[in-house]
Amino acid sequence: MADSANLDQAESKRISTALEVEQLDDNLFRSKELYLPFRARGVFGGQVISQAIVSATKCVSPEFALHSLHCYFLLSASPAVPIIYNVDRVRHGRTYTTRLVRANQRGRTVFVMICSFQIPEPEQLSHQWAMPEIPSPEQCPDEVEVLKENAQDSSRPDETKAQLRQYAEERSTSPIHTRRVGNYIGPEGTPVFMCWMKPKDEAILGYISDTHFLPIAAHTLRLNRFGGGVAPYGMLSSLDHSIHFYSNDFDCNDWILYMTTSPVTASGRGYVTGRMYSRTGSLIAITTQEGVVRARLEKPNQSKL
Predict the structure, then answer these.
(1) Out of the domains of life, which is the source (predicted)?
(2) Average pLDDT over every residue of 153-158
């Protein structure tokens, strides 16, 4: 009989099924599919965010659009047990309305999210930071192909090459196409990472926003995942995540540019920020995340007296 976690991962290759929730009561919902990424400690955070968004949206009048969310990851969620989403209708105003979502599993709260919805005001004045001039998605290398090429590098240890092949296989079954644009050093002196992302199926922005996000803090520190770097990975785990949406006029199933950078990492925590642009150059969302970012450090030898 096939392993249940593998079945969960196979099913969640389709984002549309991965985001579905079953409505149990007016304010109560249950996950249908859960996804455990490569070497992850728990269910993919972007999926939990997205299912919470779907649950909250079902408890809001259709004229309201999601404009911001703030969430905390409290415990790692298992892919083997459904998550229950309880929506609290905190406030309902004429222009803005607020919902609080608690995600529970095995009697414990694993995730909380407060989100705000707004009746859009397109007639108001606007401005945005322009999207940088970069190659189109068609001109950028596919992430899976890059990983496979790196796995064939004869200078890498066999163990590292095996890890790269395994990661390439996991990324090939991901519901998100990723093409790497590259990175550059920003005016603050830290790397800015860029990639194009496009769902293989239908998606919502919350799912995409957690893809390749917190690891940017580890990349900035040059932590070693597949060889090289200054120190091996110790632990990466999301603590909180926020999104502010500034456009509803875009196709989430087309290519989206994700620009990410890490302003600071200290005391075992890293902070990352992101900008998401539509293919036509509209700045559609601003994202932030903080998480546990630890290197696996060697403890100094202590002399015995």
Answers:
(1) Eukaryota
(2) 84
